[in-house]
Amino acid sequence: MSLAPIAVFAYNRPWHLKQTIESLKRNKLAKASELFIFSDGPNNKKDLVDVERVRQYIKIINGFKKVTITRRQKNHGLAKSIIKGVTKIIDKYGKIIVLEDDLVLSSGFLEYMNNALELYKNEKKVMHISGYMYPIKSDDLPDTFFFNQASCWGWGTWERAWNYLDTDSKRLLTTIYDRKKEKVFNYYGYYNFIDQLKKNISGRLDTWAVKWYAAIFLSNGFCLHPKVSLVNNIGLDGSGINSPVSNNYVISNLATKIVVKKINIKELPAVKDRMISFYKKNFNFLSKINQKISGLICLFK
């Protein structure tokens, strides 16, 4: 099995990035994996110092088979940076593992991701492998299952699936409306993903992951998840460009090992029910008002 290349996208958070890299290095497959780091250029003079601190740090990163660094001279922004970087790598290698600079990873993360990418590489219906899973009751769940939301907190995919990405928010929204699927796209009315597409159309947001989710949704694709998360996001502290301050997604204990084996490609009803309960609990009336005001996008940067 050839190991998937790992892409890390960084901007102006040197401390967060170091936590991500150090946790990645604790994976036994790290030394055999190629690491690609994309450092976005500063958006303003205020960010210049921290961007430079990031660039000083990434020069000394080791512990991988090879480290390749791309330093953007100009600011691309998160959406453009990720789409451009992922496309470049996936066109060459055919598969990818994607990380942002605010994720702490389990020591079993790379093994899970690579096993899943290998096992489902020829299953056209499977489009996304997620390393993160929400903090829901999971004792009675299988090690892996299909839950069709494409979490962007530690994920992987293949060229065959990434080719379905459509960055035209207006076209995606029109197709969703034409198929009368807006309620299901909004997870049965419990989370307003439609609003994110509208804000991308109006220019109030410039994000990528809601478009990836929409592409998977409209292709009737499936997303594999672990029963217990292998990823924790430490960036929900107000330091991120598009991330709110929140404790709703914190994972107390990450899984150390997830067994990946072929399972039926269908969404697990028990997870769907628990996710509806999760959204009900965490996105009450006040949360929805705050979401509308602030442009909250949580997992869909």
Which key phrases capture this entry?
11 helices, 10 strands, about 40% helix, 8-stranded mixed β-sheet, single chain, about 300 residues, two-stranded antiparallel ribbon, Spore Coat Polysaccharide Biosynthesis Protein SpsA, Chain A, alpha/beta
Layout: helices, strands, pairs:
Elements: E1 6-10, H1 14-25, E2 34-39, H2 45-58, E3 66-71, H3 78-93, E4 95-100, E5 103-105, H4 109-119, E6 126-130, E7 144-146, E8 155-158, H5 159-162, H6 169-178, H7 182-185, H8 193-202, H9 209-218, E9 222-226, E10 231-233, H10 269-282, H11 285-294
Parallel strand pairs: 1-2, 1-4, 2-3, 6-9
Antiparallel strand pairs: 4-8, 5-10, 6-8, 7-9
Helix pairs in contact: 6-8, 6-9
Structure description:
The protein is globular. By secondary structure, it is α/β, with parallel strands linked by helices. It has one domain: Alpha-Beta Complex (Spore Coat Polysaccharide Biosynthesis Protein SpsA, Chain A), CATH 3.90.550.10. Helix 2 links the parallel strand 2 and strand 3 (66-71). Helix 6 (169-178) packs parallel to helix 9. The chain starts with 5 loop residues before the first strand and ends in a 7-residue tail after the last helix. Helices cover 38% and strands 15% of the residues. It is built from 11 helices and 10 strands. The longest helix is centred in the first third of the chain and has 16 residues, at 78-93. It has an 8-stranded mixed sheet, with helices on both faces.
